[in-house]
Design goal:
The structure is a homodimer. Chain A contains seven helices and two strands; from the N terminus they run H-H-H-E-E-H-H-H-H. Chain A is mainly α. Chain A has a domain of 91 residues: Winged helix-like DNA-binding domain superfamily/Winged helix DNA-binding domain (Arc Repressor Mutant, subunit A, Orthogonal Bundle). In chain A, strands 1-2 form a two-stranded antiparallel ribbon. At the A-B interface, helix 1, helix 6 and helix 7 of A face helix 1, helix 6 and helix 7 of B. The structure holds FE2/S2 (inorganic) cluster (2 copies). The site of one FE2/S2 (inorganic) cluster (FES) has 12 residues of chain B, from helix 6. Chain A binds a DNA duplex through helix 3.
DNA sequence: TTAAATTCGGATAGATTTGTCTTAAATAGA
DNA sequence: TCTATTTAAGACAAATCTATCCGAATTTAA
């Protein structure tokens, strides 16, 4: 469904959001320990999220990653997925035709767009804040 | 969403179904011309579908691929996806945890399973026959 | 029986994704 | 200013996915 990079990206963003809500900036090490992901690869993804202004990175001692508190309930999963995986999941044809086109549709088109749009709406309608609360209350987990 | 192999597999199966409904067996060449896919790679996928008894292959002159007419409205897309891509799309965690587990869910679990189950139901509820009719009437297309 | 047509299977190659390593740059604090 | 800490960036490596190549096996038909 999502690439590994995207999975790590979402999990990392959720942890950063959770800690940012508590006023804490977190280091790369803390993130990869929390979400159980490869250090250097995760660092690349965090750079990408920082370049897309989804997270803020700070170098030097006590540096790390954080998210503007005020933005956390305004950052939707769709933004992260789009930054990491692009928009193919929202726009692509289910059977791999070069583009999804209702005027010359593949046989699966009508059924596929229903599911694809549901996924899109779910991602567009879910903020980091909503998911971070479940983490904070211990109801959900970022590794296992 | 699906792998390239799976996309080719579904498109190939649909073309074979359409031709089988017309009593025609089709060669690899005819298939790859119709769905615009790489020959040798497509051949591998067809072998896989044949081993999974979704299609029937015949060697020799006038050989090729076909599907038992009586089975066509009974073969669901889910079988093809499962044969080619496995069941990760039905069972996998959206955030990449080793397994999806409602007892220790990831933050996206509740929302993700809704979409994933819709996708699963769509694939389980769609037969080759249903999609092949759209092809036959010229309403849908396997390449563009 | 021979030749041609066709799929099968294994080896190989290319492309993409995933992951690592090393050095540079920035920053805080002694 | 010096040093330790931390992220940034680019080169590299490994794994996986996609695609190709070639010879073997099977079958039809002359
Ligand atoms: S054309 Fe295939 S999903 Fe729209
Ligand atoms: S645990 Fe992540 S989707 Fe179910």
């Amino acid at each position: 469904m999502f690439s590994k990079a995207c999975e790590y990206g979402i999990r990392a963003a959720l942890f950063i959001a959770q800690e940012s809500l508590n006023g804490q900036r977190v280091s790369l090490k803390a993130i990869t320990a929390e979400i159980d992901s490869p250090d250097a690869f995760t660092a690349k993804i965090l750079q990408l999220l920082a370049r897309n202004e989804i997270i803020v990175s700070t170098k030097g001692p006590n540096g790390g990653f954080e998210i503007d508190k005020k933005k956390i309930d305004n950052i939707m999963l769709s933004e992260i997925v789009d930054a990491v995986d692009g928009d193919s999941i929202y726009k692509g044809c289910g059977l791999g035709l070069k583009e999804c086109n209702a005027d010359k549709p593949c046989p699966l088109h009508n059924r596929f767009v229903l599911v694809r749009n549901d996924l899109k709406k779910m991602l567009e309608g879910t903020s980091l804040f909503e998911l971070a609360t479940g983490l904070e209350t211990g109801l959900t987990f970022l590794k296992r």
